[in-house]
Design a protein that fits this description.
Blueprint (H helix, E strand, L loop, with lengths): L32 E2 L2 E5 L2 E7 L2 E6 L4 E6 L5 E6 L11 E6 L5 E5 L4 E5 L5 E5 L12 E7 L4 E6 L4 E6 L2 E5 L3
Antiparallel strand pairs: 1-2, 3-4, 4-5, 5-6, 7-8, 8-9, 9-10, 11-12, 12-13, 13-14
Length: 174
């Protein structure tokens, strides 16, 4: 069956149209479970959609869960709590780059992690720290696909760091 608002709490994707005119509803309370941990109920806080798959950041499980929109089928989750590659301490905003890689803000680890569509770890952008080019509490995320440029908001410092291919380019300034 198609994924409905009761299947996925929307986070940043509230209002995004689904097949047959259905909509993701930010007020939804029934959350998806993931195939690899069927008894665990996810608590999605953000969502990104690509190629008919909804990727949701699960703050409870410290992971990213994938669901096929057309059928509601769980495609499993990846991640889990931790500090090593592919693990999270509060995954949050997500977006896809022009090559189809999923970029995920990892708030308490102070980084952006990059994954392929199946959830395999690919790279890391920045690291935890206080200096320019480092992230302390990243949360906002945007990609300019035309310029292949990643913008990361840091809520602690109130600044936006700019990266291209993992390299720090500078801070956005007024």
């Amino acid at each position: 069956r198609p994924l409905r608002s009761k299947d996925l709490s929307a986070g940043q994707g509230a209002g995004r149209s689904l097949p047959r005119g259905e909509r993701l509803d930010a007020a939804a309370t029934n959350r998806p479970s993931c195939a690899d941990q069927p008894d665990a109920r996810a608590e999605p806080v953000a969502v990104a959609v690509q190629d008919g798959i909804a990727y949701s950041a699960d703050r409870k499980g410290q992971r990213i869960c994938r669901n096929r929109i057309a059928t509601g089928e769980s495609l499993g989750c990846f991640g889990g709590r931790g500090e090593t590659e592919g693990r999270f301490q509060f995954p949050y905003q997500m977006t896809f780059d022009r090559d189809g890689y999923l970029n995920v803000v990892d708030i308490l680890n102070g980084r952006v992690q990059v994954f392929d569509k199946s959830g395999r770890y690919f790279a890391q952008v920045s690291r935890f720290g206080l200096d320019d080019g480092e992230l302390f509490r990243p949360n906002g995320l945007a990609i300019d696909r035309d310029r292949d440029t990643l913008y990361v908001g840091d809520s602690y410092f109130g600044r936006v760091s700019v990266f291209r291919k993992g390299e720090f380019l500078g801070l956005l300034r007024d």
